[in-house]
Specification:
Layout (H helix, E strand, L loop, with lengths): L17 H26 L4 H31 L5 H19 L1
Helix pairs in contact: 1-2, 2-3
Length: 103
Amino acid sequence: MAHDPHHAHPHPHHHHSPEEMKALRQRLRKIAGQVRAIETMVDDHTDCAEVLTQVVSVRKALKSFAEVLIKQHTESCIAGASDPAEGQCRLRELLLVLKRYIE
């Protein structure tokens, strides 16, 4: 398999506290539950406006999750880098991802 530099993980061991990880997992479980509820609504032929209302809710939840993750990444992974060069590398990676995030 060819190496894809856009999907490489040069820093696979980002360290987040157990509390941070637990909070992130809880948010993801809630979002997954919301998505499953939307699937059920579609299967049950629920009114489209109600389904779209739930889609908006999921989008907001994902946005909130991303904001928390960005904050944690900035504080833990970039500011806490072992040396300035590593921190700069991680910052460049984050900026590339954020560019894709806002498109």
